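Hypothesis: this fold can be encoded by more than one sequence.
Test: take the structure tokens below, design a sequence, compare later.
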């Protein structure tokens, strides 16, 4: 019988509890004994009541809680051989052979040292009867996102949510009073939080430890702030990482920057140090799903481990769970610190990984360049199509600004294809998109009308306004509209211009992309609503809630919200169900009501089944649950399309907007023939989407084969493979083999840091 030990150490970012819950439940599901270690390594050394068996019900209320319910403590005893021997003794007594450690690089390094010494420690224990090896899997919990090898650590997204909430609140008062605000965010050795915050709020300047400003930055900063005010801006936002330094290694503090701006420019300046508010609060949907996936992958890694398997850490790369050798990641993380200490700042940024490097390059493009004096004579039109969603405006803003920096004239098209046909087109400048990053909905206005209704008028508008390229931001209507424009090229030569579709819809149903702008914000709205619904049931008990989500025929929102909120079932179109399945779900809830967790949550995608409607399921559950539980239903509706964009959607939209314009700029050079633009090849009309680990352009014509047009969804959707995790965590008896598995990769070779 395999035994596992679950422990939580040192840093306590929000989101850890989801990892604890998933590891415990999947561990128990596989037949293993699972133990909590309370108070981290200190509990491991002290033993006794600090190491307790975990049960299924003991983790039922964890998902929505911040911090860690099993406690965390720094431990000097574990740094000594004597302390580690005591810890080994406590494990031997319980027959534990596997450790799952959640913490930062220090915690994980300590775990690896413990594993390396295991045989030696056992030899020191008299007549020890235990396995001669110890398996270790790590999950990284750190709000700083300072661990190399993973795109995101547990807690980072939640910390960004806290920061952006505060920045948005400060922005309104700064605008009212024409103030300059300087905000300090956490990140002693890593500037990730500061960098992404700067992108997400359109900050004027950011200070991060990996890339100190050039000498003479004080003059440059004051010049930039003055220019922004000259363009009509009523506020300035400066973000400072707590570990920010100048080129000589001298710290740059909020107070120093405040004194500089106040004295040199005379601006009304305020400072805010966010502090530990960044560590707390409710975990975001992204962190809950990330931690749950990591927890499942950690158990799988332990089950497959052999004495020869090195200690690994479960990481995220794009939307894929990967396993990396723990000490390689720790080494690269140390290399970053060394590079910064030696003044090799470009190397430090590269060592942080592609995600960090892309963020830095995006920031540089938007923040530190002036529009060129010479114009390109290129006009690029931008329009929003379909239903509005949060993050659209961030994509428009970055596309407009990067277009202006390329020397192009950017044209804003109001009200989608309808506006394109009827000439609702006007030039839009730098200040025209100021403050758009944090605004929800669509500032340009959007309609569902498709171009086939007025293709002739559209072709005339393209000629009249001399449009050379088109950016279409929207959902499935944007995809269809792009296809219709490509098909009409044969009839209308004016439509032979490059075009790019940027997926932006809460439904996340655009072919060619694993993620759409707006889906993360909608997912957080659903998750937070489900939290409140569950809380209301905690008092009344024996209550089941049926919640209907948006998404059309796409079950992404229902599935991911089910994972994030701990739902008992999520009905979707992609996974057909019948009356027998509904009966099994009702019986499952009847059994659940006999435990200490006397509540249920069922999610239903709005078009999962034409006959098994929300009302039908509500009535069925109400009838079958008589005397055991009562039911309530909630149709969330259009609240899922509103709200301010999440940090992810702001950042994602910003990157997509920039990449689309840079691609169009290159494509226009390719398509310039005989003094005019002529683009009629399939690769001149593409969808820009995230596929696994990178942003890629895919011709619209090729994506037709991958699309179910009747139901407006891609034929293959990556998130379907996460469905078994949802069922296992809800205690359904299914095969674990259907879950995604990850092979061990090598972070050092992957980054090209050593010869391959």
């Amino acid at each position: 019988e395999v035994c596992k030990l679950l422990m939580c150490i040192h840093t306590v970012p929000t989101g850890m509890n989801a990892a604890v819950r998933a590891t415990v439940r999947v561990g128990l599901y596989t037949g293993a004994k699972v133990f909590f270690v309370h108070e981290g390594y200190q509990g491991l050394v002290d033993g006794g009541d600090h190491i307790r068996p975990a049960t299924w019900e003991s983790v039922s209320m964890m998902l929505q809680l911040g911090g860690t319910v099993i406690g965390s403590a720094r431990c000097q005893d574990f740094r000594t051989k004597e302390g580690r021997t005591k810890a080994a003794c406590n494990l031997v007594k319980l027959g534990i052979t596997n450790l799952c450690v959640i913490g930062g690089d220090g915690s994980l390094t300590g775990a690896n040292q413990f594993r390396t010494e295991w045989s030696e420690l056992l030899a020191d224990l008299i007549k020890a009867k235990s396995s001669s090896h110890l398996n270790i899997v790590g999950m990284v919990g750190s709000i700083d996102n300072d661990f190399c090898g993973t795109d995101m650590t547990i807690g980072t997204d939640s910390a960004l949510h806290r920061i952006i909430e505060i920045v948005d609140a400060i922005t309104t008062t700064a605008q009212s009073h024409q103030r300059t605000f300087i905000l300090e965010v956490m990140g002693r050795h890593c500037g990730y939080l500061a960098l992404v915050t700067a992108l997400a709020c359109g900050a004027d300047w950011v200070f991060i430890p990996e890339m100190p400003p050039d000498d003479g930055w004080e003059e440059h900063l004051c010049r930039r702030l003055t220019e922004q005010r000259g363009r009509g801006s009523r506020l300035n936002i400066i973000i400072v990482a707590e570990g920010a330094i100048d080129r000589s290694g001298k710290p740059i503090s909020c107070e120093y920057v405040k004194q500089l701006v106040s004295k040199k420019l005379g601006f009304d300046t305020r400072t805010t140090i966010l502090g530990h508010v960044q560590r707390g609060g409710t975990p975001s949907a992204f962190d809950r799903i990330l931690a749950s996936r990591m927890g499942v992958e950690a158990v799988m890694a332990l089950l497959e481990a052999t004495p020869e398997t090195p200690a690994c850490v479960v990481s995220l790369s794009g939307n894929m769970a990967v396993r990396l050798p723990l000490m390689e990641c720790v080494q690269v993380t140390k290399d970053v610190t060394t590079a910064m200490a030696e003044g090799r700042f470009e190397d430090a940024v590269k060592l942080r990984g592609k995600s960090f490097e892309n963020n830095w390059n995006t920031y540089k493009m938007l923040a530190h360049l002036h529009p060129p004096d010479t114009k390109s004579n290129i006009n690029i039109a931008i329009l929003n199509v379909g239903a509005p969603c949060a993050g659209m405006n961030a994509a428009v803003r970055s596309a407009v600004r990067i277009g202006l920096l390329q020397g192009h004239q950017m044209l804003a098209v109001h009200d989608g294809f309808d506006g394109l046909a009827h000439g609702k087109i006007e030039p839009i400048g730098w200040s025209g998109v100021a403050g758009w990053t944090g605004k929800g909905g669509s500032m340009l206005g959007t309609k569902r009308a498709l171009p086939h209704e007025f293709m002739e008028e559209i072709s005339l508008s393209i000629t009249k306004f001399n449009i050379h390229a088109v950016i279409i931001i929207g959902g499935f209507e944007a995809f269809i509209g792009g296809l219709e424009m490509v098909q009409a090229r044969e009839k209308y030569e004016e439509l032979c211009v490059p075009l790019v579709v940027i997926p932006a819809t809460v439904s996340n149903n655009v072919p060619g992309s694993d993620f759409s702008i707006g889906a993360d914000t909608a997912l957080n709205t659903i998750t937070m609503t489900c939290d409140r619904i569950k809380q209301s049931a905690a008092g009344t008990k024996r209550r089941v809630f049926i919640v209907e989500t948006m998404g059309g025929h796409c079950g992404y929102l229902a599935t991911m919200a089910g994972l994030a909120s701990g739902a008992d079932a999520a009905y979707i179109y992609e996974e057909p169900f019948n009356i027998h399945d509904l009966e099994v779900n009702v019986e499952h809830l009847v059994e659940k009501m006999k435990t200490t967790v006397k509540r249920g949550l069922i999610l239903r995608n709005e078009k999962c089944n034409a006959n098994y409607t929300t009302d039908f399921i509500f009535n069925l559950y109400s009838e079958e649950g008589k005397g055991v539980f009562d039911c309530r239903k909630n149709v969330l509706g259009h609240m899922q399309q509103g709200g301010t964009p999440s940090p992810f959607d702001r950042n994602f939209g910003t990157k997509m907007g920039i990449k689309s314009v840079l691609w169009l700029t290159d494509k226009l050079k390719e398509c310039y023939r005989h003094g005019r633009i002529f683009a009629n090849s399939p690769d001149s009309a593409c969808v820009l989407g995230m596929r696994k680990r990178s942003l890629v352009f895919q011709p619209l014509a090729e994506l037709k084969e991958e699309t179910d047009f009747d139901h407006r969804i891609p034929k293959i959707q990556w998130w379907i493979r996460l469905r078994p995790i949802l069922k296992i965590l809800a205690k359904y008896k299914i095969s674990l083999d259907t879950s995604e598995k990850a092979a061990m990769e090598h972070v050092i070779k992957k980054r090209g840091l050593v010869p391959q």
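The chain is about 40% helix and 15% strand. The longest strand covers residues 379-385.
Hypothesis status: open.
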